[in-house]
Amino acid sequence: MYSLAFSILFVSFIILTLIVRFWLASRHIRHVLTHRGAVPAEFAEKIPLAAHQKAADYTVARTKFGLLTLLVNTLVLVGFTLLGGLQWLSIEVFKLTGGGMGYQLALLAAFALISGAIDLPFDYYKQFGLEQRFGFNKMTRGLFFADMVKGVLLGAAIGLPLVWVVLTLMEKSGDLWWFYAWLVWSGFQLLMMVLFPTVIAPLFNKFTPLEDQSLKSRIEGLMKRVGFASKGLFVMDGSKRSAHGNAYFSGFGANKRIVFFDTLLSRLQPQEIEAVLAHELGHFKLKHIIKRIAMMFAISLAFLALLGYLKTQLWFYTGLGVDPLLPPGQRNDAMVLLLFMLALPVFTFLFSPLTSIGSRKHEFEADAFAAKHTDARDLVSALVKMYEDNASTLTPDPLHSAFYDSHPPASVRIRHLNAAPA
Length: 422
Ligand SMILES: [Zn+2]
Hints:
There is one protein chain. The protein has 16 helices and four strands. By secondary structure, it is mostly helical. Strands 1-2-4-3 form a four-stranded mixed beta sheet, with helices on both faces. Strand 3 (247-250) and strand 4 form a beta hairpin. The longest helix has 34 residues, at 100-133. Residues 279, 283, 363, 366 line the site of zinc ion.
């Protein structure tokens, strides 16, 4: 009874999510196309019409592609759950492995490989169809497949030991296993923050210390003014994959480093780079990063507590198309992890505007910080260039933007910056 009710609830949320996403996408496409004919007045002198139209076409193409992947992912989700895909997979893997921890690890690995294989043609098309068409792809096919192989090996090297620890806790540590799993998960996240910039990212890109002495002393001056200590300024060879430019910040404590994409450095003037960096430092100084981490820990604790409860509820398995007693006599904690991972996004999607609200508030604060410590006009001109180079639309549908975007629309950000006290 509960199981049927849960199936109905699950399907209802899937349909609701599809309706909302299709509705938002069609609004967005219509809005962008309506404004395709003219550059918005406030950007008219800075962005040529051709670039504006390229941004519109790129946005429409990406949004349509997003709908296609949404449809396919939804079919795959239903296939794995209600149509019995996971049930079938677990029985086949059981026949091959004979049960035990080996069975559970193999089930997770098999699921990851199958999902990866389904995603592959879409990832390939995105890079060599979509991005290529708009001139953003800089990747060779060799690099694409080398990245893929590295990603799979890295996922296995990191993922398998992690799930082994979690599965062992689920089996041996009693009713509070989810709390211990949370401690492990949080520790893992912190470890990744240290390992990502120093060990993992260098497997994919080359990081060289920033050479440009005048830019370096300009940046060091800014860091001194705002009281920020960092181990290093690095340039990343982003141009070997994509023409999109960016700057980011990684690590924490003594490990902090600032990374500029070479594509960004080649396009911006030194004072614009300084302003972009001031915005990033703003996130750090205003404790946005630490707040985001604390929030992430709190949410994952709540979700793991929920998983601790669901693990013992038969309807959670049967409602998602899995018989919890198959394979017979086996612990099947790996299955509940899979079901939870698949079902959770269906129920949380409608809450995504909440995270966007928080993140946009932080963006305004970081912009204000940059305006205070550098010249707001430099950040404005850097933003305009970055929008143009990335073919980001200047005229998003307001509702679509409120739902999905972590950053406020360019026009709103620039209006705020122009109003900032000099
Ligand atoms: Zn930001």
